[in-house]
Give the backbone structure.
Amino acid sequence: MLLIIIAVNLSGCVKIETKRYEASFLDLFDTITTIVGYAEDKEEFTDHAQMIHDKLMEYHELYDIYNSYDGINNIKTINDNAGVSPVKVDQRIIDLLKFSREAYQLTDGKVNEAFGAVLSVWHQYRTEGLDNPDKAEVPPMEILKEKEKHTDMNNVIINENESTVFLADPDMRLDVGAIAKGYAAERVCEYAMEHGFANGMLSVGGNVRTIGRKLDGGKEVSWSVGIQNPDLESAQTNLYILGLSDYSLVTSGVYERYYTVNGKQYHHIIDPDTLMPAEYFLSVSIVCRDSGMADALSTAVFNMPFEEGLKLIESLENTEALWVFKDETMKSSSGFENYIKK
Ligand code: ADP
Ligand code: MG
């Protein structure tokens, strides 16, 4: 029966009525996840949304650096065993760390998964500063410099034969926050596509991955994805609406997570060269196919002067970027305009 339906549908003789559905979840990656898709009825869509949610949850638990889960060795387990012993892990952790290493090399170290020792200091000061704004402080540079000694990627020892990861430096910590959401979204979209999810959009906290096209009004058109205006108070919510099909859009921005010390905002993307929040832009958005790469690049390019980032983006195929400078002016890579929805 199924085969017949597919054949009929492909020949275009009979159109199966599909409706657009949307589902949101709040229990993944500390953010809001939204899934948009099409199905003949609510049940069919709910099955797909549940499948995507459950797969994302597996990645969320594996890539968590703050919480432990029964029966799972995750990134936190690796951190807890720094300098102690190798930890046997799921292949998906090894794959993420290998991907992170490629991103490190591609971006000249501007995104570094072994940067956790420095990032955890910022995390602690930010958390305390948000809880107690009157006493908010910037981490002292001596502390940051001391922690920086423990960020050498080469001390992340991956043994693929044994499926283990070992941090050879006891004071080193992994932080996969710059890459994990996009990487997980990419893997889960691949999985969903293999399981019959052919037209949809997945947003994990604004890390957007599109699948196929949208089917509005019987027509197939690209998905419309907005680029958030970093000025959250502006009446114009989006700087641009892009038309994407099988592409990803990921933005890193100062407005996402920050705290305030003496009237100055300190956000969560830390330049490895200065050990301080990068000061070049309000946001950087990346358009490319792979949402893991888009996530890695958005953080890394945010940490680079414009010319350096532009050179990197122009060297990559099917990859574009939009930079929003601190005075709200914008620049984009050479092919960016092709994605703007007319
Ligand atoms: P978000 O996760 O808020 O969408 P990003 O993808 O830019 O934004 O990731 C920011 C997170 O990446 C930070 O919260 C921190 O955990 C981590 N991070 C910050 N700076 C760096 C860096 N230079 N290298 C690697 N990870 C970083
Ligand atoms: Mg990122």
User: Anything to note?
Assistant: The chain has nine helices and 15 strands. Residues 114 and 153 are 5 Å apart (CA to CA). Confidence is low (pLDDT under 50) at residues 1-14. The pocket of adenosine-5'-diphosphate (ligand 1) is lined by residues 111-112, 115, 119, 175, 177-178, 181, 205, 252, 256-257, 268-270, 272, 295, 298-299, 303 (CB under 6 Å).
